Amino acid sequence: MRQIPVGTRGLYTLVLAVEHLASTAHPALPQVMATPMMILMMEQAAMSALTDYMEPGETSVGTLVNVEHLAATPLGHTVRAEAEVVKVEGRRIEFRVAAFDEQEQIGRGTHGRAIVELGKFNQRLQAKLRP
Fold this sequence. Notes:
Elements: E1 9-15, H1 22-25, H2 35-50, E2 58-69, E3 78-89, E4 92-100, E5 105-117, H3 118-129
Antiparallel strand pairs: 1-3, 2-5, 3-4, 4-5
């Protein structure tokens, strides 16, 4: 892993489609952006911030999510998630994350990721699959 500077930023955008709505998970929920989808976008933004710092065979995994979903977003809106590195401790990276629709900020919080060696990660995973 190359050194990741504090202040490194990542971005992820999408146009809100039916599969991103809370009502897709449960029909009693409103037809607005699902909170788990907003969190996924924040994670995608954080991963995009790390792309240029990964060595071959490395990936990152989520370790912490602490966010507020502040406002509802309707179908068809473009949503933007942003992540900024605020702390690096070895292989652990902490981000400030935020999300915006076309009118306002819809989410904010913190997110943690860890850089892992994919080979070792997969070995541990395979060990869990053995009886």
